Amino acid sequence: xxxxxxxxxxxxxxxxxxxxxxxxxxxxxxxxxxxxxxxxxxxxxx
Length: 46
What we know:
The protein has 46 residues and is α+β, with helices and mostly antiparallel strands. It has one domain (3-45). It contains 2 helices and 2 strands, in the order αβαβ. It has a two-stranded parallel ribbon with strand order 1-2. The longest helix has 10 residues, at 24-33. The protein is elongated, with a radius of gyration of 15 Å.
């Protein structure tokens, strides 16, 4: 197995999302509408 073959299967991105309390509804809508299998780990800060 090539090194590049094994790395591509395990890639993901960490995304930080910040919002004030007024942005809670927007965050809920965002998470309801993004696909679950896009390779992202989302960290939400309120």
